[in-house]
Amino acid sequence: MLSSLQKRWRLADPPQETVDRLVRELNVTPTLARLLINRRVETADDARFFLENDLSRLHDPFLMKGMDAAAERVLRAIENREKITAFCDYDVDGVTSAAFLIHFFRDLGVEIDDYLPERLREGYGLNAQAIHEIHSRGTRLIITADCGITAVEEVRTARALGVDVIISDHHQVGPQGLPEAVAVLNPHRSDCTYPYRFLSGVGIALKLAQAVRSRLLAAGWDRERLPNLKRHLDLFALGTIADVAPLTGENHLLSALGLEVMTVSAKPGLIALKEVAGVTGAVTARSVGFGLGPRLNAAGRLGKADAGLHLLISPDLREAMELAAVLDRTNQERKDVQERVLEEAEYLMEREVNLEKDRVIVLASENFHPGVVGIAASRLVEKYFRPTVLIALEGEVGKGSGRSIPRFNLHKAFIECASHLVQFGGHAYAAGLTIRKDCVPHFRDAMNRVGERILQPEDLIPEMKI
What we know:
By secondary structure, the protein is an alpha/beta fold. The chain is about 50% helix and about 15% strand. The protein folds into three domains: about 10-50; about 60-325, inorganic pyrophosphatase (n-terminal core); about 355-465, Diaminopimelate Epimerase, Chain A, domain 1 (Roll). It has helices at about 15-25, 30-40, 45-50, 65-80, 90-110, 120, 130-135, 150-160, 200-220, 235-240, 250-265, 270-275, 285-300, 305-315, 315-350, 375-385, 410-415, 440-455; strands at about 10, 85-90, 110-115, 140-145, 165-170, 185, 360-365, 390-395, 395-405, 425, 430-435, 465. The strands form three sheets. Strands 3-2-4-5-6 form a five-stranded parallel beta sheet, sandwiched between helices. The chain has a five-stranded mixed beta sheet with strand order 7-8-9-11-10.
């Protein structure tokens, strides 16, 4: 068995032709060119985003497929005073995406409602029960935030009720194709030519706000009445960094500015969150990744995500402090639950997994908490360096979450194993699923067949770049 402590050391040595091209196009030294490339900044355009805090370099939001239709539908909703609901995922990217949209519409003086699915009862994403409830509230337009890309049937349900849907999501498109929504905003759709594909959910929310603002200006709105989106870049940075999106291109530029905004933010929720997390002075990516983000994520993991969203949109500091205290306690509870799940996972590892032959770890238990299986899977990947899927069983159904390693695209593997799954979605490195209990052994075998085909022994040794 390979030791989890083994490492492959690799000197980062970028291709000379790429170095020469950056030197020539940017008029920089070879040393700086190599440093940029080693930070995944390989084009002159990306380098300018990285080196210059110039908002004029942002890409036109209308380059994103579906943005024209989305902006026009929102404009019509505003003009007709239709009720809008932001429907979001329960992680940090999801709640910051919804919070960004809510702040934007509030700044415009437009009514907007919010809906977060209760994780343990409703699961992930749009669902028929939620759509019927949202419809009963009088909503005519749903804008999803960081979810919805696989909600084909759910969008049909909404349409049948006379509710339009705009999908705003950055997860991979599912094998069943795109939902028949008014618009589907997602840089990963095959027909989208937007220049930057790594926006998180809050990034797409920002792009939608940019587009709507542009349309309102063209429709004759006074420029002074339109929101200054820079005020809400604190939410962009919080969601993007917590979602571990690549800090290149637009993400780097907007996150850098967003951290500056967050440092002096007047939003009561961020003031309160920084206080309970012990974040003082300049807010950094580390502050977000290890202080602010985990507290917001804990709420969603344990079924209390509405506390995180309401914290970020609260106009009242006293209420915000109460909500932040709830999140702080919930984060400690999350740590305790996570520790118990890891203990159970290690117990199952000893009995069910043979690291000499298993390329992929798949564990299922009724003792797993569905809210923390993702982060627990991450810990097992760190220890064993194998793609890992943990499934929390309840009755005859399991809800799982997986994390992966560089050579193994988890979402593509799920597509290959789709016959064993009820539903799934996600990215190359992180994905979620729903599965019948009796399908778990077949899914485990199928995933390992994919792993045997794709992963070589050297791929299971962590690579350290120096």
